[in-house]
Design goal:
mainly alpha
Amino acid sequence: MASTSITDNPALAALGDAPSAADLQRRDERLRRRESLLRTAVPIAVVVGLLLLWEVLVRVNNVPHYIIPAPSLILTTLVDNWETLSSALWFTVKLTLLSLAAAIVGGVLLAIAFALFKWVEIGLFPIAVILQVTPIIAIAPLILIYVSSTTAALLLCAWIVAFFPILSNTVIGLKSADSNLRDLFQLYKASPWQTFRYLLAPSALPYFMAGLKIAGGLSLVGAVVAEFTAGTAGRETGLASRILESSFRTEIPMMFAALLLVSLLGIVIFIVFAALSRAVLGHWHESEMRRER
């Protein structure tokens, strides 16, 4: 009987040409690098294109700088006034991070109390909801009246805005643990600490990270809005005060420069927390795991 070689059989030939594991890994690496490059290059290209369009329209139409300054003038103003703006930026960063840290500590601890003690949730959750739904700009003047320190008042205003997303998301995460696993932990007589560490905390972590990304931006919004309401001035003030001072003096390029720093700070906060979420959840949770396309 005649023997059949691989080259005589198309199906076997196709199997013989199948890529190896190393080839597949190299291909996956190329796809990941291309996707990462596109995720970075496309937004940058869009932003640069919009800035170029803005620059061209302002120059072609001879728009006065006190109406809409060109991006080049905004950048020049930022460089020329960097000493003043950098100190204001640092104050805003400190206020944002301190309020966010306080929101994380208070929100997580209260969420744990809600999850473990039903009566605590029944008694205090409505108060948290009231603080969230009440516009901060409406209660900021009262806080500024009752709190003697302006910095402490600004910190409290920013904390109120950032607190609820941490609390709400963490409570939902703690309650979303699988009921069958809860019964299993009870069956094996796990201690409350073991149940919290090995079941409740991993269940709540994705929800907490989602709340953290929301609260990071809201803490910046709360800090800026509180400073607008306070109308403070001087060296120990933030970017909102620079915007107010510039509006009073009709220094529109300075306003845009301070606004640019606020926007960049918000973008940096979001990128940092998105990267933190990917690092914490990327190797085990579906929300951050890379999928093959």
